[in-house]
Amino acid sequence: MEKAMDVEMEREGGGEEEEEETESVSDVLRDRFRLSTISIAEAEAKRNGMEISEPIVACISDLAFKYAEQLAKDLELFAQHASRKIVKMEDVVLSAHRNEHLAASLRSLCDDLKAKEPQSERKRKKTPRKENKATTSVVHIPDN
Amino acid sequence: MTPHFTTIDFARHRDLELKIQNKHNFPLSLSMEDENNTFDPDLIHAIFKLVWTRRALERERNDVADALDCEVGAGTSKKNRQTSANGKAIKLSCELLRILITEAVQRAATISEAEGASKIEATHLERILPQLLLDF
Fold first, then answer.
1. How buried is A24 (Cβ within 10 angstroms: 0-12 exposed, 13-18 middle, 19+ buried)?
2. What is the CB-side half-sphere exposure of residue A43 using CA atoms within 13 A?
3. What are phi and psi for residue A132, nearest 5 degrees?
4. Residues 6+ apart with CB under 8 A from A27
5. Is B39 within 8 Å of chain A by CB?
6. Radius of gyration of chain B (CA)
């Protein structure tokens, strides 16, 4: 009985160390993520003829990072629901279900990525007019 | 004025966006070779793995607690093998996150422009935030 409890204590001690380690890894990732966000956000602001203030970019970055973590959790759940251990494209497309335009954009991107596979047989080739806005509709123009 | 995000406002918002599109003549293509940079797939993969590891540890910890009662070996449960991701799924996720950032900035820029400001500030961001979070 005591032995079992000792094992449990050891495990928990190791668990704490692991937690600290994941914390610092998380910080590094967060910083790298912020750098990427800054460049994407500033480029996009420029495209709109605007400047964006620094704390706002930091705010968007934190939001996106939290979203990414939430996305990871959702993807794991979707894969698990489909009795899989590997997250696939269809899981990502499913996670975008809340906005129809977003879902359509992702789905068309998904088809493009599939079409790039050398071995898979190509289905009817789609050249959709891809938009990067979730609010405008996506027009699909089939090639033949 | 508190913004409500009814369908009417959404449509008006959309018209404003279309106006901006036409004004700047953007191709608005959602392609991987976009001039916009995007997230590094390895970075996103690392973030995902971090979350999945954390969750796997949680599950393992819970399993240990159960194991002491039921004498089932922890770690033998299928649930403890960690989730992994397809490369294409990561690429799509990068794109999804990039769209999130882009949408946030673009919508906030619309508000900012409507107000006649040249810089996107907190007030602009907070107005678009509810609908943004609903869309994603």
1. exposed
2. 15
3. -100, 25
4. none
5. yes
6. 22
Provide the chain A residues 108-127 that lie in CB contact (below 8 A) with chain B.
108-110, 112-114
Integer angstrom CA distances of residue A141 from A127, A128, B25, B30: 6, 5, 21, 15
Give the Cα separation of A5 and B32 in Å (integer): 53
pLDDT tens column, A58-76:
999 999 999 999 999 999 9
Q: How close is the nearest chain A Cα to the Cα of B42, in Å?
A: 10
Chain A from 21 to 40: CB within 8 A of any B CB = 22, 25-26, 29, 32-33, 36-37, 39-40
Residues B8-28: tens digit of each pLDDT:
444 444 555 455 444 443 334
Instruction: Tell me the pTM.
Output: 0.70
Q: What is the model's pLDDT at position B5? A: 40
Q: Does A86 contact B at CB distance below 8 Å?
A: yes
Please state the ipTM of this predicted complex.
0.72
The pair of structure tokens assigned to B113 is 């422009």
Question: Contact A55/A44 with Cβ under 8 angstroms?
Answer: no
Identity of residue B58: E
Cα–Cα dist B21/B13, whole Å: 12
List the single residue in B26, B48, B119 with the smallest CB-CB distance to A47: B26
Q: What angle do CA A26, B135, A115 make, to 5 degrees?
A: 80
